[in-house]
Design brief:
mainly beta; ten-stranded mixed sheet; 11% helix
Length: 270
């Protein structure tokens, strides 16, 4: 039996469709509920969509759903106003579910800021992407384990992450991650995290993705964290690990700026 009454849980959802008008990408229909909002601070050829959690974070039993369709030739950058905080849970895990659909020739950048797991946090996250053969996806997700700035250097809890990416209706990337119990103890193990407290996965999928792997490696040559980069089957994948969230963020910025040909989203810099 749940210890948290249903009326104390937050259920938030954003659904939106994007299309083109001339050379510009514009949002079509938008649906928002709960404490989630979508804002568009910049006008231009690429539409910047900023996701806002007015509740300041998620707790056990909360659900956040994001469902976006990027139409043919449209280009959208998704980001967040701040790091997503995941608070201590009494029983049920918080859930974050993301669905992205990319039409022919569409481009999507999924660039949220960090997810921070507090001690006792429980999070189940799911990402599903369906894209066409000539669409482009740049995606990064980073997770910080513990509020290190507050001296929270060890945490217990649960983190489950499930990713599925399909191109032309064929599964090309699938991943399952699960850490439970003594989270930082697990990350301390050499074969797992080597004492990392912050991790990130970067994926770039595009017709020219494999050809950009050396550019990606060069961008990370003097990165202040551990990393590894590989390319195959029309995609480039980078894993990053660091005991310092600040160093990890620095490496991500170092990677994104040359790859995008522009600065990180403006909200990252405020």
């Amino acid at each position: 039996m749940s210890l948290v009454p249903a009326y104390m849980r937050a259920l938030g959802e954003i659904r939106a469709d994007f299309g083109t008008q001339g050379s510009r990408t514009q949002v079509g229909r938008v649906y928002e509920t709960g404490g989630l909002r979508l804002r568009f601070p910049n006008a231009g050829k690429t539409c910047e969509a900023v996701m806002v959690n007015t509740g300041g974070g998620v707790a056990g039993g909360d659900e956040a759903r994001f469902d976006f369709t990027i139409g043919p030739q449209a280009a959208v950058t998704f980001t967040t106003t701040a790091a997503e905080k995941v608070y201590r849970a009494q029983d049920q895990a918080a859930e974050i579910n993301v669905s992205l659909r990319l039409g022919a020739g569409a481009s999507a950048e999924w660039l949220p800021q960090e997810t921070i797991l507090f001690d006792g946090a429980r999070l189940a996250r799911r990402l599903d992407v369906d894209m066409e053969a000539d669409s482009r996806l740049t995606l990064i997700e980073s997770v910080v384990f513990g509020r290190m700035a507050s001296g929270e250097l060890t945490i217990e809890g649960s983190f489950r992450d499930r990713w599925r990416i399909r191109r032309n209706r064929q599964l090309i990337f699938a991943e399952e991650m699960k850490i439970e119990g003594d989270v930082t103890g697990t990350l301390d193990r050499p074969a797992v995290g080597g004492k990392a407290r912050a991790t990130a996965t970067f994926i770039h999928i595009a017709p020219d993705a494999e050809g950009r792997i050396e550019e990606i490696r060069e961008a990370l040559t003097d990165a202040p964290c551990d990393w590894g980069a590989s390319a195959w089957n029309g995609m480039a994948v980078v894993r990053l690990l660091s005991p310092s969230p600040e160093h990890l963020r620095g490496a991500i910025v170092q990677l994104l700026q040359p790859l995008r040909g522009q600065d990180t989203p403006r909200v990252w810099q405020t």
